Amino acid sequence: MTDAASPLTDQARELRRMVDLHRSPARSLSGLRSLAVLSGKGGVGKSNISVNLSLAMAERGKRVVLLDADLGMANVDLLCGISPRYTLANLVRGEKTVEELLLPIGGSVLLLPGGPGVQGLADLDEASLSLLIDRLSVLDGIADILIIDTGAGIHKNTLSFAVAADSTLLVTTPEPTAIRDAYGVLKSLAIATQSKIDVTLLVNMTASEHEGQEVADRVRMAASQFLELTVAYGGSLPTDMAVRRAVQMRSPFLQAFPDSRASRAVGGMADFLLGVEEKEKTLFSGRGIKSFFFRLARGLGLGKSS
User: In angstroms, rounded to a whole number, what is the distance separating the alpha carbons of residues 292 and 296?
Assistant: First the structure.
């Protein structure tokens, strides 16, 4: 006797299909690459960019896992119109597998809900942390790119994700306080890494491309002059009513309004980042998921002695 398929059953089947599609029979020598998305303050559209950038990269043939690691305002699920049943906390406690946490949000993008599980990492001893990282290593066979939506501001957790990632995307707006706080993030990253970190700047909510370029020039010049830090400029996203409407619809704007100015701009951002990635493959590859989480653990001071 068989029960009628429920929405949860359908979702599980779709997830299994996507995980199977994400898996590749043989991985190349290049490991998964990680990109941390951060901002100096809230309200600049960081999470929205994380979601839509993930979808844009998927449209360009990449398998993407999006980790919602914003402890204060985890809202990727709201932007995508989904309700996660489990988070990283369930994996930390050994209750669920990585595959059971992953949720499809469109294209070849899977969401890994972090929630309180990120904070729960602090309670793990060294052996438990090592076991958790081994469980997470399955992502190397599922994704080409891990995008981490971090918290806003200059906090240890946020900076640790940025330093652990292969590259960092810093989101700001033309608002003076946002520019000031973005520079504060760059200063903290420069101190933490001795100015040896791959950072790309994105200016959101601009009135024009010229305004975005002006903001970027100011930030990049200050970073170079005072921090000896080279910051790439990845472009700008315009103020677009389609973004607000998509948020109200609980749908990514790239899906709800694919022909909008914001969608075209985020596509250009994906092209820029993927173009940089292709060039860097001749120099170094992504360091893989285990390496990322071990670096993160060191940055957070995790792995307490038993």
Answer: 6
